[in-house]
Amino acid sequence: MNAIAPITQGLEPFAARLSDVKGEDRKAAAGALARTGLPTPRVEAWHYTNLRALSGRVFSDAPAGFDETAAQAALARILPPDSVVAVLPRLVLVNGRFAPTLSSTDLPEGVTCTSFVQSPDFGILASPDREGMVALNTALAGDGVRISVAPGTQVGQLVLVSLALGTDSDVSFHPRHSITLGEGASLSIIEIVASENAGAYLHNPVLSCTIAEKAHLTHVKIQREAENAVHLATVYADIAVRAAYDSFTLGLGSVLARHEVHATMHGDHAAVHVNGAQLLAASQVGDITSVITHGAPDCVSRQTVRNVLSDRSRAVFQGKVLVERVAQKTDGYQMNQALLLSPSAEINAKPELEIYADDVKCSHGATVGALDDDQLFYLRSRGIPDDQARQMLVEAFLVETVELVEDETLRAALNQTLATVLRQRIGAAEKTA
């Protein structure tokens, strides 16, 4: 008997695969999808982001094998020798599957890594019954990585590369990752999402982070999917007493991208940072959505997101801070800022505060503007060409947000990437001028 019947509208691109899922978790997720379908703009959380890019297509599973030589060459370009993260231990996935032959074998002491195939545990943090894309991931997850850090271990930095390689259009992969930090442990991980000769694929990862008492996880993500790809990522973070989840996402690629974070502080004196930046052009849509829950007293949350939008690109920021009744002495702050470089660019911002405690300090704000004419004139008067002057101002606007990343190595990697992308876009603009 099929796991879903009848097929709900919106699930046609995955109907054949969903009808053949096995296992209780996967069947339950497919059943949830059958009841709700994929999110549409009628769903409040997806009001500004439309999944029409998936309609009219049939997504097949990404091929299991890959060209090892091509993958090595792609990695050399993604992590060139002058990159500050090139020398760090790495874990690599190709088309959503863990690739041991491309990954480091000498992980730092105290760190263990297994693939989702080896240990297919969906965990308890994700909510496939409430989140449509998480339900799709749960039903179709093929692989992923499970990283554990022993209590008291200070790991340093680790690289996680997700590479789409040589895929045809209309393939999808749904990796399922988890990171678990023991008490007092710390880890800085940089997730690099990239592609090489890939078509119009769908990448739908889910990451669950469990951070024990006094542990600290820094999670930096650089998203550079193929220009026709769709990237829909969901992150769950569960933070214990005096622990911290410090994250930053840099959105650069794909025609449609969404980075959604659900962070819950259930121990006192915990901290969450969900910062980010998006640099969008052409008709790209980039969405950063977060739900930060203060479930204990004396916790701190910070969120600063900056967007630079040109051509007909559009950015979405949705940030919700939920303060439960028990969470007295909460300190929460949100800020979303957008720089519009074109009259056709658009920003949709929806900050939310939902507060049930009475002794809190919470605020949010948003600004939208263009490049400062006086600053531009000053640079031009010093003989700097117009394109370079604009690049300098854009880079300065975004780097202020990158400075929020405390880990120096990961911060340097972000700055390197930003500088490279801005140079490439200026160069491309000059060629077409």
Summarize the structure.
With 433 residues, this protein is an alpha/beta fold. Helix content is 20%, strand content 39%. The protein has helices at 15-18, 24-36, 68-78, 132-140, 373-381, 386-402, 408-432, and strands spanning 60-61, 90-94, 97-98, 111-115, 145-149, 154-165, 171-173, 176-181, 186-196, 202-203, 206-211, 216-224, 230-239, 244-251, 256-265, 271-280, 285-294, 300-309, 314-323, 330-340, 346-355, 360-369.
Largest sheet entry: 12 strands, mixed
If you compute it from the alpha carbons, what radius of gyration comes out, rounded to the nearest whole angstrom? 21 Å
Distance N terminus to C terminus?
A: 59 Å
* SS summary, helix count: 7
Query: What is the string of SSEs from the N terminus onward?
Result: HHEHEEEHEEEEEEEEEEEEEEEEEEHHH
Low-confidence stretches: 1-7
Which terms summarize this structure?
10-stranded mixed β-sheet; 2 domains; 39% strand; alpha/beta; globular; 20% helix; 12-stranded mixed β-sheet; disordered N terminus; 433 residues
